[in-house]
């Protein structure tokens, strides 16, 4: 069996690269130069990126694409998207344009409450713990004043702390369940700092509680951590228009299109296999903007999917209807985002993205992100229920294959012309390029 490496983190960046190259690559020099090719020539900038995480050896690029023409609450936005999947930015741009011509998107933040919990074990009567908590509740606020004072100045802070009895789920399991308002920050650091202080306060107060026995005085705090499930931090995005206005070319029968579209959404509402893919399409838009604006896409993903399953059955995040000749399509999702703190003031491209969005508040960013998700979903369902998804995908795919083969401009033109009228598949394109090059020889 291989031996584990020890002290890897203590090696310099160069030494780490050498270690990897020598251990895993038949041509270590090639591996080393590949990693170094991705270093930024600007040493200060490189150091900034090195320091985001641990054991950094190089940068890993993802494209930053731009989707213009998003009309949201009567204001135009140019939306930054970081994503590796072809067609997503094109689809977003197309959907944005389509809806800009039909009144645009409406978006509303319904609430902004964040949640954190101290999970602990208390062996005793619940009423004993309840009395203890009621008597001491104000101290939890008081002992976090140092942490909350800045947030309070910005209009945020701890909203409430409640004791939750969870002993029906796990013996002796209780929580301090706290709610927070974190204004323009995502609030993870703020919430976790408050929670860790709550845990200290809880333990200290328990030690001093004269009604507790020895075991109760030593109640066990298992952990203190924010929840990425934020069902009371919800944004709604919607579009609507007269059914007849849905036609975007002479071939479209708008009534048929609207009905099929609504049916496609209904399928995602009732069928979890479809709902997952339907929501994945929504996340194409959401994650791309969340990443571009330096927010935590894993937190967003986890929270949104939990929300999609809140009824006990995983279902569609978006909904659609036709009523009195009006087509409406909407989404309501939980989103805990920040436009200050974290990466937002560190990563130069995140700063760029936020500036391009005209420095939105967290609430405005929630609206933009939800709209990006809805737009993406609209584009996907429009393709799926009309031409099928492969047509657009394959066009983009074609471009990728052309790049992979480093086609010249003349070759590129010939390939694109040929595949205007022929079905695109990886094999077909490769065969065509090879043939083209053979003919030239
Ligand atoms: C592909 O990334 C996303 C779609 O599968 C979404 C959907 O099926 O609705 C096209």
Structure, explained:
This protein is of the alpha+beta class and 441 residues long. The protein folds into 4 domains: 8-50, no CATH class; 64-110 and 234-386, 3-hydroxy-3-methylglutaryl-coenzyme A Reductase, Chain A, domain 2 (Alpha-Beta Complex); 114-227, Hydroxymethylglutaryl-CoA reductase, class I/II, NAD/NADP-binding domain (Alpha-Beta Plaits), CATH 3.30.70; 392-440. It is 50% helix and 18% strand. The chain has 16 helices and 10 strands. A 4-stranded antiparallel sheet has the order 3-8-10-9. A 4-stranded antiparallel sheet has the order 5-6-4-7. A two-stranded antiparallel sheet has the order 1-2. Helix 4 crosses helix 13 (362-385) and helix 14 crosses helix 16. The radius of gyration is 27 Å and the shape is globular. It starts with 12 loop residues before the first helix and ends with a helix. Residues 85, 277-278, 280-281, 284, 380, 384, 389 line the site of (R)-mevalonate.
Count of spatially separate domains: 4
Mean pLDDT: 96
Beta-strand percent range: 15-25%
Please give the share of residues in helix.
Answer: 40-55%
Ligand set: (R)-mevalonate
What's the short story on this structure?
The protein is of the alpha+beta class and about 450 residues long. It contains 16 helices and ten strands. The protein folds into four domains: about 10-50, no CATH class; about 65-110 and about 235-385, Alpha-Beta Complex (3-hydroxy-3-methylglutaryl-coenzyme A Reductase, Chain A, domain 2), CATH 3.90.770.10; about 115-225, Alpha-Beta Plaits (2-Layer Sandwich); about 390-440.
């Amino acid at each position: 069996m291989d031996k584990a490496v020890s002290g890897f983190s203590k090696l310099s960046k160069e030494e780490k690269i050498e270690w990897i190259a020598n251990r895993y690559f038949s041509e270590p020099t090639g591996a080393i130069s590949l990693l170094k090719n991705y270093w930024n020539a600007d040493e200060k900038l490189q150091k900034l990126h090195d320091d985001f995480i641990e054991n950094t050896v190089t940068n890993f690029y993802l494209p930053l694409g731009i989707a213009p023409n998003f009309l949201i609450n009567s204001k135009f936005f140019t939306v930054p998207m970081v994503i590796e999947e072809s067609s997503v930015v094109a689809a977003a741009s197309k959907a944005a344009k389509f809806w800009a011509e039909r009144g645009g998107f409406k978006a509303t933040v319904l609430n902004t409450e964040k949640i954190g919990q101290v999970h602990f074990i208390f062996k005793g009567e619940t009423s004993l713990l309840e009395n203890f908590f009621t008597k001491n509740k104000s101290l939890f606020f008081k002992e976090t004043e140092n942490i909350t004072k800045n947030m309070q100045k910005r209009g945020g802070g701890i909203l409430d702390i409640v004791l939750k009895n969870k002993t029906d789920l796990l013996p002796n399991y209780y929580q301090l369940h706290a709610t927070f308002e974190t204004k323009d920050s995502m609030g993870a650091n703020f919430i976790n700092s408050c929670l860790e202080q709550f845990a200290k306060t809880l333990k200290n107060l328990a030690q001093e509680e004269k009604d507790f026995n020895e075991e109760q005085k030593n109640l066990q705090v298992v952990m203190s951590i924010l929840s990425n499930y934020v069902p009371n931090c919800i944004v709604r995005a919607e579009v609507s228009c007269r059914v007849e206005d849905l036609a975007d070319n002479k071939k479209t029968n708008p009534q048929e299109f609207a009905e099929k579209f609504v049916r496609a959404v209904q399928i995602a509402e009732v069928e979890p296999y479809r709902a997952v893919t339907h929501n994945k399409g929504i996340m194409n838009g959401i994650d791309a903007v969340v990443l571009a604006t330096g927010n935590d896409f894993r937190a967003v993903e986890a929270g949104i999917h939990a929300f999609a399953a809140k009824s006990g059955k995983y279902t569609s995040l978006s909904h659609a209807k036709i009523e009195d000749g009006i087509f409406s399509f909407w989404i309501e999702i939980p989103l805990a985002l920040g436009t200050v703190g974290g990466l937002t003031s560190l990563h130069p491209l995140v700063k760029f993205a936020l500036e391009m969005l005209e420095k939105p508040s967290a609430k405005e960013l929630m609206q933009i992100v939800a709209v990006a998700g809805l737009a993406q979903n609209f584009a996907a369902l429009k393709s799926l229920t009309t031409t099928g998804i492969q047509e657009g995908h394959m066009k983009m795919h074609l471009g990728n294959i052309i790049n992979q083969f480093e086609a010249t401009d003349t070759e590129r033109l010939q390939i694109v012309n040929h595949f205007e009228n022929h079905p695109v598949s990886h094999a077909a394109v490769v065969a065509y390029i090879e043939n083209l090059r053979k003919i030239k020889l």
